[in-house]
Amino acid sequence: MLVVFLGPPGAGKGTQAARLAAKYGIPQVSTGDMLRETVAAGNGLGNKMKVIMNSGGLVDDDTMRRVVQERLEKPDTVGGAILDGFPRTTVQAAALDELLGRTAHGGVDLVLYLDVPEDVLVERLSRRRACPECGANYHMTFNPPAQGSRCDRCCTELAQRDDDREEIVRDRLEVYREKTQPLVDRYQAQGRLVRIDGDAGIDDVFERSDAALAEVVSA
Ligand code: AMP
Q1: pLDDT value at residue 141
Q2: Which residues of the chain carry a pLDDT beneath 70?
Q3: Which domains, from first to last, does the chain contain?
Q4: Residues whose CB is less than 8 angstroms from the CB of residue 62 and which lie 6 or more positions away in sequence, other chains included
């Protein structure tokens, strides 16, 4: 079962992908998380990526194809994966098809497109905080930590991602409109896309996403 989460930054792809992955027992493959791990390693490659990510731009297609290929070659993805943050360009989508065509997966089974209005996205991202230690995500209004501004899991002080600052958020949305939005039409034309209204609570969006996935699983 190969599922792709598509949608603008702040739509909730990571949150929903993690929940579906846990329910269906297949890994969540988040390219953003993988890149942040490379940045945290603090080597030359990480520093190069940090500059791109903090400016709201995209890492080049060839690097991303290699990152995802390596990840999908790991044995834990044999039963499938939930991709969150990839593909983000038409070149990446073509590379994914090519990559999957050479594996037992064959192709993308389902694309869940989380549709959220832009003003909601800006509000969500500017109130988002993440744990620098364990990566847990919070929203200071809708999903706040239990104790002040510390992580519920590991008690570390939460921080705002550099690329969640408002001026960078605007740039990321622009990049999304130009480079990623065309993928909605591409997957729709292929009959693989289900649009989910993502402007709702986390549990409601999960139910909608789960229902769409359950339909594909039972088909
Ligand atoms: P995310 O956590 O998915 O919002 O990703 C954070 C940042 O990582 C993005 O703004 C990009 O700079 C970079 N990134 C993540 N996935 C990709 C991708 N598929 N292609 C290019 N850049 C990516």
Answers
A1: 87
A2: none
A3: 2-115+180-218 (3.40.50.300)
A4: none
Q: Which residue has the tokens 């800006």?
A: 122
User: Coil, strand or helix: which one is 210?
Assistant: helix
Q: Answer yes or no: 128 catalytic.
A: yes
Q: Is the CB of 10 under 6 A from ligand 1?
A: no
Residue 218 Cα to ligand 1 middle (Å): 32
* Residue type present at position 72: L
Q: What local confidence, expressed as pLDDT, does residue 72 receive? A: 94
The whole-model pTM stands at 0.90
Nearest one of 218, 215, 219, 210 to 82, comparing CA atoms: 210
Count of residues in the chain = 219
**How many angstroms separate the alpha carbon of residue 59 from the centre of ligand 1?**
7
C-beta 83 within 6 A of ligand 1: no
DSSP string, 102-136: TSTT-S--EEEEEE--HHHHHHHHHTEEE-TTT--
